[in-house]
Specification:
single chain; 489 residues; Aldehyde Dehydrogenase, Chain A, domain 1; 7-stranded mixed beta sheet; 6-stranded mixed beta sheet; binds nicotinamide-adenine-dinucleotide
Length: 489
Protein backbone atom coordinates (compact mmCIF):
# COMPACT_ATOMS: atom_id res chain seq x y z
CA UNK A 1 0.00 0.00 0.00
CA UNK A 2 1.26 3.47 -0.85
CA UNK A 3 2.06 5.95 1.91
CA UNK A 4 2.08 9.69 1.19
CA UNK A 5 4.05 11.71 3.72
CA UNK A 6 3.30 15.35 4.49
CA UNK A 7 6.00 17.85 3.51
CA UNK A 8 7.07 20.25 6.25
CA UNK A 9 10.14 22.48 6.04
CA UNK A 10 11.44 20.71 2.95
CA UNK A 11 11.28 17.19 4.41
CA UNK A 12 8.78 14.32 4.57
CA UNK A 13 6.86 14.50 7.83
CA UNK A 14 4.64 12.04 9.70
CA UNK A 15 1.91 12.43 12.33
CA UNK A 16 1.13 10.23 15.33
CA UNK A 17 -2.06 9.01 13.60
CA UNK A 18 -2.76 7.97 10.00
CA UNK A 19 -5.84 7.73 7.78
CA UNK A 20 -6.64 5.39 4.93
CA UNK A 21 -7.31 6.63 1.40
CA UNK A 22 -10.11 4.61 -0.20
CA UNK A 23 -10.22 3.87 -3.93
CA UNK A 24 -13.89 4.56 -4.83
CA UNK A 25 -13.72 2.11 -7.75
CA UNK A 26 -12.69 -0.90 -5.67
CA UNK A 27 -13.96 0.22 -2.28
CA UNK A 28 -10.58 -0.75 -0.81
CA UNK A 29 -7.87 1.28 0.91
CA UNK A 30 -4.98 1.91 -1.47
CA UNK A 31 -2.85 4.40 0.48
CA UNK A 32 -2.33 5.86 3.90
CA UNK A 33 -1.84 9.51 4.81
CA UNK A 34 -0.84 11.17 8.08
CA UNK A 35 -3.61 12.71 10.17
CA UNK A 36 -1.96 15.94 11.30
CA UNK A 37 -2.44 17.16 14.87
CA UNK A 38 -2.77 20.84 15.68
CA UNK A 39 0.90 20.74 16.74
CA UNK A 40 1.92 19.33 13.33
CA UNK A 41 0.01 22.13 11.62
CA UNK A 42 1.73 24.67 13.88
CA UNK A 43 5.14 23.27 12.91
CA UNK A 44 4.27 23.65 9.22
CA UNK A 45 3.05 27.23 9.64
CA UNK A 46 6.18 28.14 11.64
CA UNK A 47 8.36 26.70 8.86
CA UNK A 48 6.43 28.70 6.25
CA UNK A 49 6.70 31.87 8.35
CA UNK A 50 10.48 31.42 8.73
CA UNK A 51 10.90 30.72 5.01
CA UNK A 52 8.88 33.84 4.19
CA UNK A 53 10.87 36.16 6.44
CA UNK A 54 14.33 34.76 5.88
CA UNK A 55 14.15 33.78 2.26
CA UNK A 56 11.21 33.84 -0.13
CA UNK A 57 10.09 37.45 0.20
CA UNK A 58 13.64 38.53 -0.61
CA UNK A 59 14.13 36.01 -3.43
CA UNK A 60 14.19 37.89 -6.76
CA UNK A 61 11.17 37.34 -8.97
CA UNK A 62 13.32 35.85 -11.71
CA UNK A 63 14.47 33.11 -9.31
CA UNK A 64 10.92 32.44 -8.07
CA UNK A 65 9.92 32.11 -11.74
CA UNK A 66 12.79 29.72 -12.47
CA UNK A 67 11.68 27.40 -9.67
CA UNK A 68 8.04 27.58 -10.78
CA UNK A 69 9.02 26.62 -14.34
CA UNK A 70 11.12 23.77 -12.93
CA UNK A 71 8.10 22.54 -10.97
CA UNK A 72 5.96 22.80 -14.13
CA UNK A 73 8.57 20.72 -16.01
CA UNK A 74 8.58 18.09 -13.24
CA UNK A 75 4.79 17.96 -13.25
CA UNK A 76 4.68 17.43 -17.01
CA UNK A 77 7.32 14.69 -16.73
CA UNK A 78 5.32 13.01 -13.94
CA UNK A 79 1.86 13.71 -15.42
CA UNK A 80 1.04 10.08 -16.08
CA UNK A 81 1.82 8.63 -12.62
CA UNK A 82 0.30 11.71 -10.98
CA UNK A 83 -2.91 11.31 -13.01
CA UNK A 84 -3.04 7.61 -12.17
CA UNK A 85 -2.74 8.38 -8.45
CA UNK A 86 -5.41 11.06 -8.59
CA UNK A 87 -7.83 8.83 -10.52
CA UNK A 88 -7.22 6.05 -7.99
CA UNK A 89 -7.85 8.46 -5.12
CA UNK A 90 -11.04 10.16 -6.31
CA UNK A 91 -12.39 8.05 -9.20
CA UNK A 92 -12.11 10.74 -11.87
CA UNK A 93 -11.38 9.33 -15.31
CA UNK A 94 -7.75 9.28 -16.36
CA UNK A 95 -8.37 11.49 -19.43
CA UNK A 96 -9.57 14.26 -17.14
CA UNK A 97 -6.89 13.92 -14.45
CA UNK A 98 -4.16 13.79 -17.13
CA UNK A 99 -5.38 17.02 -18.67
CA UNK A 100 -5.57 18.60 -15.21
CA UNK A 101 -1.87 17.87 -14.56
CA UNK A 102 -0.98 19.65 -17.80
CA UNK A 103 -3.31 22.53 -16.95
CA UNK A 104 -1.63 22.85 -13.55
CA UNK A 105 1.75 23.10 -15.28
CA UNK A 106 0.30 25.74 -17.63
CA UNK A 107 -0.91 27.79 -14.65
CA UNK A 108 2.51 27.57 -13.01
CA UNK A 109 4.09 28.94 -16.18
CA UNK A 110 1.46 31.66 -16.58
CA UNK A 111 2.06 33.03 -13.08
CA UNK A 112 5.83 32.48 -13.27
CA UNK A 113 5.67 35.10 -16.02
CA UNK A 114 4.39 37.65 -13.49
CA UNK A 115 6.93 36.89 -10.74
CA UNK A 116 9.43 39.44 -12.09
CA UNK A 117 6.78 41.88 -13.32
CA UNK A 118 4.94 42.85 -10.15
CA UNK A 119 5.18 46.53 -10.96
CA UNK A 120 4.03 49.32 -8.71
CA UNK A 121 3.18 52.82 -9.89
CA UNK A 122 4.69 56.25 -9.47
CA UNK A 123 1.93 58.69 -8.63
CA UNK A 124 2.19 62.44 -9.25
CA UNK A 125 0.89 64.38 -6.21
CA UNK A 126 -0.24 68.00 -5.77
CA UNK A 127 3.05 68.71 -3.99
CA UNK A 128 5.78 68.22 -6.61
CA UNK A 129 8.53 67.70 -4.02
CA UNK A 130 6.89 64.63 -2.55
CA UNK A 131 7.68 61.47 -4.47
CA UNK A 132 4.94 58.84 -4.23
CA UNK A 133 5.18 55.25 -5.37
CA UNK A 134 3.39 51.96 -4.69
CA UNK A 135 4.67 48.42 -4.20
CA UNK A 136 2.79 45.11 -4.33
CA UNK A 137 3.71 43.14 -1.25
CA UNK A 138 2.98 39.52 -0.30
CA UNK A 139 0.91 38.84 2.83
CA UNK A 140 3.22 36.14 4.27
CA UNK A 141 1.98 32.62 5.02
CA UNK A 142 -0.98 31.67 2.84
CA UNK A 143 -3.19 28.73 3.89
CA UNK A 144 -4.47 26.92 0.79
CA UNK A 145 -7.36 24.53 1.51
CA UNK A 146 -8.83 22.37 -1.26
CA UNK A 147 -11.69 19.95 -1.94
CA UNK A 148 -11.44 16.32 -3.09
CA UNK A 149 -12.88 16.59 -6.57
CA UNK A 150 -9.76 17.97 -8.30
CA UNK A 151 -6.91 18.23 -5.78
CA UNK A 152 -4.22 19.34 -8.25
CA UNK A 153 -6.60 21.27 -10.50
CA UNK A 154 -7.86 23.36 -7.58
CA UNK A 155 -4.40 23.81 -6.11
CA UNK A 156 -3.21 25.02 -9.53
CA UNK A 157 -5.47 28.06 -9.10
CA UNK A 158 -3.93 28.97 -5.75
CA UNK A 159 -0.31 27.89 -5.50
CA UNK A 160 1.08 29.66 -8.63
CA UNK A 161 -0.19 33.19 -7.83
CA UNK A 162 0.75 32.74 -4.15
CA UNK A 163 4.34 31.75 -4.99
CA UNK A 164 4.78 34.24 -7.82
CA UNK A 165 3.91 37.13 -5.53
CA UNK A 166 6.31 36.00 -2.77
CA UNK A 167 4.03 34.27 -0.27
CA UNK A 168 4.92 30.95 1.32
CA UNK A 169 2.20 28.33 1.70
CA UNK A 170 0.76 25.62 3.89
CA UNK A 171 -1.58 23.45 1.83
CA UNK A 172 -4.29 21.27 3.32
CA UNK A 173 -5.89 18.99 0.74
CA UNK A 174 -9.14 17.16 1.45
CA UNK A 175 -8.90 14.12 3.70
CA UNK A 176 -10.70 12.23 0.87
CA UNK A 177 -7.94 12.84 -1.73
CA UNK A 178 -4.56 14.00 -0.45
CA UNK A 179 -1.96 11.82 -2.16
CA UNK A 180 -1.17 13.87 -5.28
CA UNK A 181 -0.82 17.10 -3.28
CA UNK A 182 1.85 15.44 -1.12
CA UNK A 183 3.52 14.22 -4.33
CA UNK A 184 3.50 17.70 -5.84
CA UNK A 185 5.19 19.14 -2.74
CA UNK A 186 7.76 16.33 -2.93
CA UNK A 187 8.49 17.32 -6.54
CA UNK A 188 8.87 20.93 -5.40
CA UNK A 189 11.57 19.85 -2.93
CA UNK A 190 13.32 17.88 -5.67
CA UNK A 191 13.46 20.84 -8.06
CA UNK A 192 15.01 23.01 -5.36
CA UNK A 193 12.30 25.09 -3.69
CA UNK A 194 13.82 26.32 -0.41
CA UNK A 195 12.62 24.45 2.72
CA UNK A 196 9.42 25.88 4.16
CA UNK A 197 8.20 27.65 1.02
CA UNK A 198 5.73 24.85 0.12
CA UNK A 199 4.37 22.77 3.02
CA UNK A 200 1.56 20.21 3.01
CA UNK A 201 -0.39 19.00 6.03
CA UNK A 202 -2.97 16.22 5.66
CA UNK A 203 -6.03 15.53 7.79
CA UNK A 204 -9.67 16.51 8.14
CA UNK A 205 -11.57 19.50 9.48
CA UNK A 206 -9.56 19.56 12.75
CA UNK A 207 -6.32 20.07 10.82
CA UNK A 208 -8.06 22.72 8.70
CA UNK A 209 -9.31 24.48 11.82
CA UNK A 210 -5.81 24.52 13.34
CA UNK A 211 -4.55 26.07 10.11
CA UNK A 212 -7.13 28.87 9.78
CA UNK A 213 -6.75 29.86 13.45
CA UNK A 214 -2.93 29.90 13.47
CA UNK A 215 -1.86 33.49 14.26
CA UNK A 216 0.93 33.38 11.66
CA UNK A 217 -1.45 32.65 8.77
CA UNK A 218 -1.91 35.95 6.90
CA UNK A 219 -4.07 34.86 3.96
CA UNK A 220 -6.57 32.05 3.38
CA UNK A 221 -7.69 30.68 0.03
CA UNK A 222 -10.39 28.02 0.22
CA UNK A 223 -12.20 25.82 -2.29
CA UNK A 224 -14.99 23.66 -0.93
CA UNK A 225 -18.58 23.70 0.24
CA UNK A 226 -20.43 26.92 0.99
CA UNK A 227 -21.13 26.05 4.65
CA UNK A 228 -17.43 25.42 5.31
CA UNK A 229 -16.56 28.58 3.38
CA UNK A 230 -18.88 30.69 5.53
CA UNK A 231 -17.34 29.20 8.70
CA UNK A 232 -13.85 29.99 7.40
CA UNK A 233 -14.82 33.56 6.51
CA UNK A 234 -16.31 34.07 10.00
CA UNK A 235 -13.22 32.63 11.68
CA UNK A 236 -10.86 34.69 9.51
CA UNK A 237 -12.87 37.84 10.21
CA UNK A 238 -11.96 37.61 13.91
CA UNK A 239 -8.33 38.29 12.92
CA UNK A 240 -9.24 40.26 9.78
CA UNK A 241 -7.35 37.80 7.61
CA UNK A 242 -8.22 38.23 3.92
CA UNK A 243 -9.98 35.26 2.35
CA UNK A 244 -10.64 34.00 -1.17
CA UNK A 245 -13.64 31.67 -1.37
CA UNK A 246 -14.43 29.37 -4.29
CA UNK A 247 -17.60 27.58 -3.22
CA UNK A 248 -20.49 25.63 -4.64
CA UNK A 249 -22.79 26.27 -7.55
CA UNK A 250 -26.11 25.45 -9.21
CA UNK A 251 -25.24 26.65 -12.66
CA UNK A 252 -27.88 27.20 -15.36
CA UNK A 253 -27.17 25.92 -18.86
CA UNK A 254 -29.70 27.79 -21.03
CA UNK A 255 -30.70 26.42 -24.45
CA UNK A 256 -32.74 28.69 -26.73
CA UNK A 257 -34.73 27.44 -29.71
CA UNK A 258 -32.32 29.15 -32.12
CA UNK A 259 -29.28 27.25 -30.79
CA UNK A 260 -27.22 24.69 -32.68
CA UNK A 261 -28.95 21.89 -30.80
CA UNK A 262 -26.39 19.19 -31.56
CA UNK A 263 -23.63 21.29 -29.98
CA UNK A 264 -25.88 22.39 -27.14
CA UNK A 265 -26.67 18.79 -26.23
CA UNK A 266 -22.98 17.88 -26.19
CA UNK A 267 -22.46 20.93 -23.97
CA UNK A 268 -25.25 19.83 -21.65
CA UNK A 269 -23.75 16.33 -21.35
CA UNK A 270 -20.30 17.76 -20.69
CA UNK A 271 -21.76 20.23 -18.19
CA UNK A 272 -23.30 17.61 -15.93
CA UNK A 273 -21.82 14.17 -16.64
CA UNK A 274 -18.13 15.03 -17.08
CA UNK A 275 -16.37 14.20 -13.80
CA UNK A 276 -19.64 12.52 -12.72
CA UNK A 277 -21.03 15.97 -12.01
CA UNK A 278 -18.49 16.55 -9.27
CA UNK A 279 -17.39 19.96 -10.44
CA UNK A 280 -18.28 23.27 -8.89
CA UNK A 281 -19.30 24.58 -12.33
CA UNK A 282 -21.55 21.61 -13.14
CA UNK A 283 -24.39 22.73 -15.41
CA UNK A 284 -26.86 21.02 -13.11
CA UNK A 285 -29.90 23.01 -14.26
CA UNK A 286 -30.69 22.68 -17.95
CA UNK A 287 -33.11 25.47 -18.87
CA UNK A 288 -34.74 24.67 -22.20
CA UNK A 289 -36.87 26.89 -24.44
CA UNK A 290 -40.33 25.38 -24.81
CA UNK A 291 -40.30 24.96 -28.65
CA UNK A 292 -37.30 22.58 -28.45
CA UNK A 293 -38.01 21.14 -24.99
CA UNK A 294 -39.22 17.64 -25.97
CA UNK A 295 -36.43 17.21 -28.49
CA UNK A 296 -33.74 18.19 -26.00
CA UNK A 297 -35.14 16.02 -23.19
CA UNK A 298 -35.25 12.96 -25.48
CA UNK A 299 -31.70 13.55 -26.76
CA UNK A 300 -30.23 14.11 -23.29
CA UNK A 301 -31.95 11.04 -21.87
CA UNK A 302 -30.61 8.90 -24.74
CA UNK A 303 -27.09 10.26 -24.37
CA UNK A 304 -27.14 9.81 -20.57
CA UNK A 305 -28.19 6.18 -20.92
CA UNK A 306 -25.31 5.54 -23.35
CA UNK A 307 -22.51 6.91 -21.13
CA UNK A 308 -19.84 4.28 -20.59
CA UNK A 309 -19.24 3.71 -16.88
CA UNK A 310 -16.26 1.78 -15.61
CA UNK A 311 -12.70 1.73 -14.37
CA UNK A 312 -11.44 5.33 -14.15
CA UNK A 313 -8.01 4.13 -15.31
CA UNK A 314 -9.43 2.70 -18.57
CA UNK A 315 -9.05 5.40 -21.27
CA UNK A 316 -12.38 4.31 -22.82
CA UNK A 317 -14.36 5.05 -19.63
CA UNK A 318 -16.54 8.17 -19.81
CA UNK A 319 -17.69 8.30 -16.20
CA UNK A 320 -16.14 6.83 -13.06
CA UNK A 321 -17.60 6.30 -9.60
CA UNK A 322 -18.34 9.24 -7.34
CA UNK A 323 -15.47 10.01 -5.03
CA UNK A 324 -16.51 8.92 -1.55
CA UNK A 325 -19.24 7.27 0.47
CA UNK A 326 -20.74 10.39 2.14
CA UNK A 327 -21.06 12.01 -1.29
CA UNK A 328 -22.60 8.84 -2.75
CA UNK A 329 -25.25 8.69 -0.02
CA UNK A 330 -26.02 12.39 -0.38
CA UNK A 331 -26.61 12.06 -4.13
CA UNK A 332 -28.94 9.06 -3.66
CA UNK A 333 -30.86 11.05 -1.05
CA UNK A 334 -31.37 13.99 -3.41
CA UNK A 335 -32.53 11.66 -6.21
CA UNK A 336 -35.16 10.25 -3.85
CA UNK A 337 -36.25 13.76 -2.85
CA UNK A 338 -36.68 14.74 -6.53
CA UNK A 339 -38.86 11.70 -7.15
CA UNK A 340 -40.95 12.45 -4.10
CA UNK A 341 -41.47 16.05 -5.24
CA UNK A 342 -42.78 14.90 -8.62
CA UNK A 343 -39.85 15.46 -10.97
CA UNK A 344 -40.14 13.12 -13.98
CA UNK A 345 -37.28 10.65 -14.20
CA UNK A 346 -36.18 10.08 -17.81
CA UNK A 347 -32.75 8.48 -17.27
CA UNK A 348 -30.84 6.75 -14.46
CA UNK A 349 -32.29 7.31 -11.03
CA UNK A 350 -30.01 5.48 -8.60
CA UNK A 351 -27.12 3.12 -8.31
CA UNK A 352 -25.63 1.95 -11.62
CA UNK A 353 -25.44 -1.81 -12.14
CA UNK A 354 -23.33 -3.63 -14.68
CA UNK A 355 -20.16 -5.61 -15.26
CA UNK A 356 -17.23 -4.27 -13.26
CA UNK A 357 -19.33 -1.79 -11.30
CA UNK A 358 -20.22 -3.88 -8.24
CA UNK A 359 -17.50 -2.63 -5.87
CA UNK A 360 -17.54 1.01 -6.93
CA UNK A 361 -19.63 3.98 -5.88
CA UNK A 362 -21.43 4.22 -9.22
CA UNK A 363 -24.48 6.40 -9.80
CA UNK A 364 -26.30 6.05 -13.11
CA UNK A 365 -26.28 9.28 -15.15
CA UNK A 366 -29.62 10.70 -14.07
CA UNK A 367 -31.96 13.13 -15.81
CA UNK A 368 -35.12 14.59 -14.31
CA UNK A 369 -37.48 16.44 -16.65
CA UNK A 370 -40.33 18.85 -15.81
CA UNK A 371 -38.42 20.08 -12.77
CA UNK A 372 -39.90 23.15 -11.11
CA UNK A 373 -37.54 25.83 -9.77
CA UNK A 374 -38.98 25.41 -6.26
CA UNK A 375 -37.97 21.74 -6.00
CA UNK A 376 -34.95 20.83 -3.86
CA UNK A 377 -33.28 19.23 -6.89
CA UNK A 378 -33.42 22.60 -8.68
CA UNK A 379 -32.09 24.64 -5.77
CA UNK A 380 -29.49 22.54 -3.89
CA UNK A 381 -26.07 21.62 -5.18
CA UNK A 382 -26.01 17.84 -5.82
CA UNK A 383 -22.35 17.53 -6.83
CA UNK A 384 -23.12 14.36 -8.75
CA UNK A 385 -24.37 13.14 -12.17
CA UNK A 386 -27.93 14.39 -11.77
CA UNK A 387 -29.48 16.84 -14.23
CA UNK A 388 -32.63 18.89 -13.69
CA UNK A 389 -34.32 19.95 -16.93
CA UNK A 390 -36.58 22.98 -16.54
CA UNK A 391 -38.71 24.40 -19.39
CA UNK A 392 -39.07 28.16 -19.97
CA UNK A 393 -41.28 30.23 -22.27
CA UNK A 394 -39.22 33.36 -23.02
CA UNK A 395 -35.99 35.24 -22.23
CA UNK A 396 -37.37 36.96 -19.15
CA UNK A 397 -38.43 33.68 -17.62
CA UNK A 398 -35.06 32.08 -18.46
CA UNK A 399 -33.19 34.88 -16.72
CA UNK A 400 -35.53 34.81 -13.72
CA UNK A 401 -35.03 31.06 -13.23
CA UNK A 402 -31.28 31.30 -13.89
CA UNK A 403 -30.80 33.96 -11.21
CA UNK A 404 -33.34 32.51 -8.82
CA UNK A 405 -30.94 30.41 -6.74
CA UNK A 406 -28.57 31.21 -3.89
CA UNK A 407 -25.51 30.49 -6.03
CA UNK A 408 -23.76 32.55 -8.70
CA UNK A 409 -20.78 30.65 -10.04
CA UNK A 410 -21.32 30.00 -13.76
CA UNK A 411 -23.89 29.91 -16.56
CA UNK A 412 -24.04 29.10 -20.26
CA UNK A 413 -26.16 30.47 -23.08
CA UNK A 414 -26.77 28.53 -26.29
CA UNK A 415 -28.11 30.66 -29.12
CA UNK A 416 -27.16 31.82 -32.62
CA UNK A 417 -28.89 35.18 -32.13
CA UNK A 418 -26.15 37.63 -31.14
CA UNK A 419 -28.55 40.27 -29.79
CA UNK A 420 -30.24 37.71 -27.58
CA UNK A 421 -26.87 36.44 -26.31
CA UNK A 422 -25.74 39.91 -25.20
CA UNK A 423 -29.16 40.69 -23.69
CA UNK A 424 -29.16 37.53 -21.61
CA UNK A 425 -25.48 37.65 -20.60
CA UNK A 426 -26.03 41.21 -19.39
CA UNK A 427 -28.60 39.99 -16.88
CA UNK A 428 -26.91 36.87 -15.50
CA UNK A 429 -25.67 37.22 -11.89
CA UNK A 430 -22.71 34.82 -12.09
CA UNK A 431 -18.91 35.01 -12.16
CA UNK A 432 -18.40 33.06 -15.42
CA UNK A 433 -20.53 32.89 -18.55
CA UNK A 434 -19.98 30.55 -21.48
CA UNK A 435 -21.60 31.21 -24.82
CA UNK A 436 -22.05 28.19 -27.10
CA UNK A 437 -19.58 26.17 -25.03
CA UNK A 438 -19.35 24.70 -21.53
CA UNK A 439 -16.51 23.95 -19.07
CA UNK A 440 -13.90 25.77 -21.16
CA UNK A 441 -11.07 27.16 -19.09
CA UNK A 442 -7.83 29.11 -19.47
CA UNK A 443 -4.95 30.23 -17.27
CA UNK A 444 -5.56 33.82 -18.43
CA UNK A 445 -9.31 33.96 -17.71
CA UNK A 446 -10.40 35.02 -14.19
CA UNK A 447 -12.65 32.57 -12.36
CA UNK A 448 -14.83 32.91 -9.26
CA UNK A 449 -18.34 33.44 -8.01
CA UNK A 450 -20.84 35.81 -6.47
CA UNK A 451 -23.58 35.20 -3.87
CA UNK A 452 -23.26 31.83 -2.10
CA UNK A 453 -20.57 30.76 -4.60
CA UNK A 454 -18.00 32.94 -2.85
CA UNK A 455 -15.80 35.93 -3.60
CA UNK A 456 -12.36 36.70 -4.95
CA UNK A 457 -10.93 35.59 -8.27
CA UNK A 458 -8.53 32.85 -9.25
CA UNK A 459 -6.54 32.56 -12.48
CA UNK A 460 -5.74 35.46 -14.76
CA UNK A 461 -4.20 38.74 -13.69
CA UNK A 462 -6.99 39.26 -11.14
CA UNK A 463 -5.52 36.48 -8.98
CA UNK A 464 -2.40 38.53 -8.24
CA UNK A 465 -4.52 40.98 -6.26
CA UNK A 466 -5.70 38.14 -3.98
CA UNK A 467 -2.15 37.48 -2.75
CA UNK A 468 -0.76 41.03 -2.48
CA UNK A 469 -1.50 44.27 -0.73
CA UNK A 470 -0.56 47.71 -1.99
CA UNK A 471 2.04 49.58 0.02
CA UNK A 472 2.17 53.31 -0.69
CA UNK A 473 5.45 55.17 -0.04
CA UNK A 474 5.78 58.98 0.20
CA UNK A 475 9.18 60.64 0.28
CA UNK A 476 9.51 64.40 0.93
CA UNK A 477 12.72 65.56 -0.74
CA UNK A 478 12.09 69.33 -0.40
CA UNK A 479 14.01 69.71 2.88
CA UNK A 480 11.48 72.48 3.74
CA UNK A 481 10.34 73.21 7.30
CA UNK A 482 6.66 72.38 7.94
CA UNK A 483 3.94 73.35 10.39
CA UNK A 484 3.60 70.19 12.54
CA UNK A 485 -0.09 70.86 13.25
CA UNK A 486 -1.31 70.99 9.67
CA UNK A 487 -1.89 68.04 7.42
CA UNK A 488 0.69 67.98 4.64
CA UNK A 489 -0.68 67.84 1.13
P1 LIG B 1 -15.74 20.71 2.24
O1 LIG B 1 -16.14 22.12 2.45
O2 LIG B 1 -16.35 19.65 3.06
O3 LIG B 1 -14.16 20.53 2.43
C1 LIG B 1 -13.22 21.32 1.72
C2 LIG B 1 -11.93 21.39 2.51
O4 LIG B 1 -12.14 22.11 3.71
C3 LIG B 1 -11.37 20.03 2.92
O5 LIG B 1 -9.95 20.08 2.80
C4 LIG B 1 -11.77 19.95 4.38
O6 LIG B 1 -10.96 19.10 5.15
C5 LIG B 1 -11.62 21.38 4.81
N1 LIG B 1 -12.35 21.75 6.02
C6 LIG B 1 -13.50 21.23 6.50
N2 LIG B 1 -13.85 21.87 7.64
C7 LIG B 1 -12.90 22.81 7.87
C8 LIG B 1 -12.71 23.79 8.89
N3 LIG B 1 -13.55 23.92 9.92
N4 LIG B 1 -11.64 24.60 8.80
C9 LIG B 1 -10.78 24.50 7.76
N5 LIG B 1 -10.90 23.59 6.79
C10 LIG B 1 -11.96 22.75 6.84
O7 LIG B 1 -15.97 20.47 0.67
P2 LIG B 1 -15.80 19.12 -0.12
O8 LIG B 1 -16.93 18.20 0.23
O9 LIG B 1 -14.40 18.64 0.04
O10 LIG B 1 -15.95 19.63 -1.63
C11 LIG B 1 -17.16 19.77 -2.28
C12 LIG B 1 -17.54 21.23 -2.38
O11 LIG B 1 -16.50 21.99 -2.97
C13 LIG B 1 -18.74 21.44 -3.26
O12 LIG B 1 -19.67 22.28 -2.63
C14 LIG B 1 -18.18 22.13 -4.48
O13 LIG B 1 -19.06 22.94 -5.17
C15 LIG B 1 -17.03 22.89 -3.93
N6 LIG B 1 -16.07 23.19 -4.98
C16 LIG B 1 -15.95 24.48 -5.43
C17 LIG B 1 -15.08 24.79 -6.46
C18 LIG B 1 -14.92 26.20 -6.96
O14 LIG B 1 -13.89 26.50 -7.54
N7 LIG B 1 -15.87 27.09 -6.79
C19 LIG B 1 -14.32 23.79 -7.03
C20 LIG B 1 -14.47 22.49 -6.56
C21 LIG B 1 -15.33 22.21 -5.52
Amino acid sequence: MKHAAMIIDGKPAEAAATREAINPYTGRAWATIPDASAADVGTAVAAADRAFRENWRRTPGVERARLMHALADALVAEAEPMATMESTDNGKIIRETSSQMLFAARNLRFFAGYADKLYGRTIPLDNPSVFDYTRRRPFGVAALITAWNSPIGLLANKLPPALATGNTVVIKPSEHASVTTCELARLACEVGFPPGVINVVTGGPAAGEALITDPAVAKISFTGGSATGIHIAETAARRLVPVTLELGGKSPNIIFDDADLDRAIVGAVSGIFAAAGQTCVAGSRLLVHRPVYERVVTAIAERAAAIRLGDPLDPATEMGPVANEPQYQRILGLIEAARAEGAVLVAGGGRAEGPGLADGLFIAPTVFADVRPDMRIAAEEVFGPVLSVIPFEDEDEAVRIANGVEYGLAAAVWSRNIDRVYRVVDQLEVGSVWVNTYRSTAAQAPFGGVKRSGYGRERGEDALAEYTYTQNVMTDWSGAARDPFVIRT
